[in-house]
């Protein structure tokens, strides 16, 4: 599709190659004053937009031919970019071309079928289309009044998701979409501190030694939230895990809480995880919840990666204990196809967070409603403004339907099972943690340095990307299935690469029985 | 353009109406396993995507025919939405149709030419197209290594913007894109607290009575950041403003800081504003900076709305004093055409923030780089993950060029000048604060209740939306120009509506000389 090769005239009028019928009228990019900036005309937007849609479809189809991570060194991309912005506007064809030649070669491709590192960050056709619409609408929902439909759709679709995941009733109408699980963590901790401070804020210092509890395996966002909320690093208690499961040890949690209470400190919050980032370990929620209830400690549950697996009945056991959580967050942008960013979060008592977070000014007078009628979601989150993220969750849940979502999740679990079986079939390797979801943690039965070397060689090939972690102090490789483009063939290929590099590193061939 | 009316088969294969040539290959939505979820095929994505692009262009062109805010009451939209997600997938045509019939009638249209409330939240063709591409790439840049090109483009384009705005050299290579100015505020305060605490975190309570200073007119995000960072509400000092300019009074700031020092407290940060949300007042930065430097107080400057005006040489005086700021943030999603969200922020010493924010785990080992070579932007912000926002800033700056950006900004200023002149020409009204940018604050010379009534009647018409604030304790209307679709005709129409409602309310006609 040909793109405009010259800029429109400064008057914003149609160039000779632009259809005049679609260029009339006002709207974004069509200001009718005779002088002013040269906004993109509606006709140009249509033509360039169609080209962008095709570009995305081509990109997805061409992904397997690209290296999953780029062979670049720091500064290499920047060095090819001009030092200054242009004085006069450039045409869209040039921009798209520069994306191809300057940017793409320096990107890691998270949608690549060989992207098996970290966790998958899935998106989908309906999610991308919804994000386009969100960008076009460009309306923000800081309050019910500034976007009533977005607010009500969010509340409804969060109830849909809670229902799909069979969450406890206490979360009904308590849902909100955060950008990321890190922000959800900070919001939860803020609400916990508010509640513990007798619903007054900490006007007289940080109070009687507030303490926070999580496992040594919890996501780094716990630590970040503790810091941001003004507690010292030493006020975060990292409870050891059981070595085989990598799950928090509730006996040690209870000891820590009781020791702090004896020392005159004030336990405020515990963060348990359903599916840790390191190994997808599942903390024993019922036991953790017991301790929290005994001592009025806020229980936040981080299900960023694995929480959505509860959509499948056979994995719903992961919810056990959630009925006692004060807050719960998941990322649909990891495994549930909505694209980045989308972090659904639920509160058992939304008033705890809105009371802690609400600050007002007279310029928001017209958009401050009655929370009993409709939420002003600005008071449920860190930023004041908020994009219309509910649209992509709505589109994604509807396009796939519950059965389509289950099929997608099950494929990730199935590919991980296939991979784990391959690893177990080679006695040079070991699977080092349970793999109930899409992640398999494994290692060569060899020194950490050999495993680090293995990972380095694997990732240098450009066809696959794995990542690593430490499990019980030992360097471990992580293979995360669940990306939409990753098939059994890609898993088989990854394993053949791993075996071949192991052959070279260990000087041995495959020794499975 | 016809959209698919039936779902593809579960195998993900092409239906009879889908072109097979474009449907082959892997990629998002084209998994090749025989069983699995029915991802959208590339052919469907192209067809639906073209329809979405046309939908957006149509939406922008049809905006003037819609009410700027919807005549709905709480619950009205939600009541029409099903209680549960569908069990099986729905086709995309149905989704788009429901957007039209269920959602749009309940939305406030921020891109409407009559949207004159709050501040404009502008977007543009190139920004929306970049957001589409960002959604399609769906790659995240938590670290240089997870998206080298996005990281380096962000650093470069932030230098471009600093150069366009003629920012002090100290901010070069100190730029990062936050989601919103609220998040920027919290990050700045966190860095300030870190620095003041001797670059150690607050392990022993909140320290020796940390205090924060801002004007009574500062954005509510200052208050929210103070709360989130664990300081009490009473630790925020709200310094009164000069009544004519609504700018912070530096004499009172100095008194407050010195009184706190005498009382053994520790002043940590001051937040000054270039263009307050209420009236676009400009705090006296040089005087504020003087006080901050005398007492080692971190100076954060919030230029969320007005900061980008410095792209115009005739408005560059607003930067006066920025050479002493420790951090500075603006929103390009307000006046600079990039769409929501995009909040560029600069640090004079990025190490202050990265040291305060950096937390690590072994699973991030491969993506932790040397900050002297390339930034890992996760350590510059609250969330761990981050979308590729630099792309839309790059596209927007290049499409418009410096002269196009200046033309756009100048049109907003010009429309505000036209409006202010109209208001001044009617002696029933008064302009109550300086209006150097796109905002005019005005009121009837009458009781607050009459002004509140005036606003209510104006906004009930559906053709325009204004908002309000309090200035020197009196109810004041706000008219914000700068939206891309708003022209001199719309400003004239708004004024005729205002005059007509004033006639009815005051029982008088126009009495200008």
Automatic annotation (TrEMBL), chains A, B:
Cofactor field: pyridoxal 5'-phosphate
Keywords from the named record: Decarboxylase, Lyase, Pyridoxal phosphate
InterPro entries, per the entry: Aromatic_deC, PyrdxlP-dep_de-COase, PyrdxlP-dep_Trfase, PyrdxlP-dep_Trfase_major, PyrdxlP-dep_Trfase_small
Top-rank taxon, per record: Bacteria
SUPFAM superfamilies the record matches: PLP-dependent transferases
Annotated region described as Disordered, given as residue ranges: 1-42
Family statement drawn from the similarity comment of this UniProt entry: Belongs to the group II decarboxylase family.
PANTHER family on file: GROUP II PYRIDOXAL-5-PHOSPHATE DECARBOXYLASE (PTHR11999), MIP05841P (PTHR11999:SF70)
Protein name, UniProt field: Pyridoxal-dependent decarboxylase
Species assigned in the record: Streptomyces cavernicola
Organism lineage string: Bacteria, Bacillati, Actinomycetota, Actinomycetes, Kitasatosporales
């Amino acid at each position: 599709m040909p793109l405009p090769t010259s800029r429109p005239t400064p008057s914003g009028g149609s160039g000779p190659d632009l259809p005049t019928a679609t260029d009339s009228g006002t709207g974004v990019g069509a200001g009718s004053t005779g002088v002013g900036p040269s906004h993109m005309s509606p006709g140009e937007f249509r033509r360039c937009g169609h080209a962008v849609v095709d570009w995305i479809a081509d990109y997805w189809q061409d992904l397997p031919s690209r290296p999953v991570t780029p062979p670049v060194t720091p500064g290499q991309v920047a060095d090819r970019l001009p030092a200054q912005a242009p004085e006069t506007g450039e045409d869209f064809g040039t921009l798209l071309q520069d994306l191809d030649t300057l940017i793409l070669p320096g990107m890691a491709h998270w949608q690549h079928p060989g992207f098996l590192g970290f966790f998958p960050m899935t998106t989908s056709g309906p999610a991308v289309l919804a994000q386009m619409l969100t960008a076009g609408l460009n309306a923000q929902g800081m309050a019910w009044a500034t976007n009533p439909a977005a607010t009500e759709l969010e509340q409804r679709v969060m109830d849909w998701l809670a229902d799909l995941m069979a969450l406890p009733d206490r979360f009904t109408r308590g849902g909100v979409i955060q950008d990321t699980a890190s922000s959800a963590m900070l919001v939860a901790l803020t609400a916990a501190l508010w509640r513990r401070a007798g619903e007054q804020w900490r006007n007289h210092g940080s109070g009687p030694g507030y303490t926070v509890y999580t496992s040594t395996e919890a996501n780094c966002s716990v630590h970040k939230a503790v810091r941001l909320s003004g507690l010292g690093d030493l006020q975060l208690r990292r409870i050891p895990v059981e070595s085989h499961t990598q799950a928090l040890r509730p006996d040690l949690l209870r000891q820590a809480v009781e020791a702090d209470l004896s020392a005159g400190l004030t336990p405020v919050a515990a963060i348990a995880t359903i599916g840790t980032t390191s190994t997808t370990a599942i903390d024993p929620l019922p036991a953790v919840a017991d301790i929290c209830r005994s001592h009025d400690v806020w229980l936040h549950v981080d299900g960023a990666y694995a929480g959505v697996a509860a959509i499948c009945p056979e994995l719903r056991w992961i919810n056990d204990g959630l009925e006692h959580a004060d807050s719960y967050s998941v990322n649909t942008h990891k495994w549930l196809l909505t694209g980045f960013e989308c972090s659904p979060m639920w509160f058992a008592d939304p008033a705890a967070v809105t009371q802690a977070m609400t600050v007002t000014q007279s310029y928001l007078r017209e958009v401050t409603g009655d929370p009993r009628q409709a939420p002003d979601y600005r008071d449920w989150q860190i930023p004041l403004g908020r994009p219309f993220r509910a649209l992509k969750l709505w589109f994604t849940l509807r396009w796939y339907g519950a059965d389509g979502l289950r099929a997608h999740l099950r494929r990730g679990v199935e590919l991980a099972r296939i991979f784990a079986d391959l690893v177990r079939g080679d006695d040079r390797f070991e699977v080092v943690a349970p793999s109930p979801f899409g992640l398999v943690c494994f290692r060569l039965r060899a020194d950490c340095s050999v495993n680090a070397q293995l990972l380095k060689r694997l990732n240098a090939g450009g066809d696959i990307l794995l990542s690593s972690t430490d499990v019980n102090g030992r360097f471990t490789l992580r293979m995360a299935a669940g990306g939409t483009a990753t098939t059994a063939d890609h898993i088989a290929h990854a394993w053949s690469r791993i075996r071949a590099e192991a052959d070279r590193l260990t000087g041995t061939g495959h020794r499975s029985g």
